[in-house]
């Protein structure tokens, strides 16, 4: 990604350098980064909307959807696997809710182009905050799938420019921003209250989604510092509560995160139990994207389980995961200035992950039930592919 200085941005947008500096301090220019004592602005980012002009147009409308969450399909609205197609039909009295459910269903089924078109049209016509945030969720997911850097920056600008009518709305927008950025496995935008597992600032309908993002935060941060049993202690009660409430997609996502944690710790038996339950929840309505999103982190485990129960779903998820990882890697590297790679095979990545965690070749061989020579060979090939000489240097490619 190419960057320009704050002064160059001011000249390009026809505004003062002082105002650009104010926008930077308020974090209203998506993708901007501070280098030493100077700010760098993405060259292709659009000028943020002037909030002073918006204030003159009057206060924001406070019209909300019946379900105050950016993903209404992750509420009790969808509580029975196999009944998804009836959801939108039942919401015809609220056109925006029906349309939002429709575009999110397209995404969950892996119909990315359809989801993109529906969400784009919905965002342009939306009259309330909930609908706009829900459409942004779909559009951001489509941007990750396609590796669309410019689209991501525009969505971030739209999110940063949203006004809140209340303190709860401000927390709600911050929550949505954290969720969207976590699609890139980035946790820097998580507010402190969400990091601690407190959901009080949110509307109640957002709690099931908040459980998912809280566990995702733990998976991406604290799990690296604490035993996996601590993650299980947090995950299992939330899964049980979500199951009791009958919230299908949220339960499936929570189980997939738990499976990732158990698999990372070498407990594939516990991981498979959660995977099998997630498949039972998602496959009746052909909801393939949650599986595609989590497939890489589970190495062979998820796809092997899927292949035994539904060959068509296995092929579809495999295809979606391949395309998603290509887009994710491109966007992740461009936006976060990282060096993640997509060149390793599943087995090579599995071995590299364990090597980076400090396991010896013998320990890796025992964990994966392969020979030590196979570990050495695959690890050597993986290192050659990214041109590194030392095992410790492999960590920067995740």
From TrEMBL:
<keyword id="KW-0238">DNA-binding</keyword>
<dbReference type="InterPro" id="IPR000792">
    <property type="entry name" value="Tscrpt_reg_LuxR_C"/>
</dbReference>
<keyword id="KW-0804">Transcription</keyword>
<dbReference type="InterPro" id="IPR036388">
    <property type="entry name" value="WH-like_DNA-bd_sf"/>
</dbReference>
<dbReference type="InterPro" id="IPR016032">
    <property type="entry name" value="Sig_transdc_resp-reg_C-effctor"/>
</dbReference>
<protein>
    <recommendedName>
        <fullName>HTH luxR-type domain-containing protein</fullName>
    </recommendedName>
</protein>
<feature type="domain" description="HTH luxR-type">
    <location>
        <begin position="337"/>
        <end position="398"/>
    </location>
</feature>
<keyword id="KW-0805">Transcription regulation</keyword>
<dbReference type="GO" id="GO:0006355">
    <property type="term" value="P:regulation of DNA-templated transcription"/>
</dbReference>
<dbReference type="GO" id="GO:0003677">
    <property type="term" value="F:DNA binding"/>
</dbReference>
<dbReference type="Pfam" id="PF00196">
    <property type="entry name" value="GerE"/>
</dbReference>
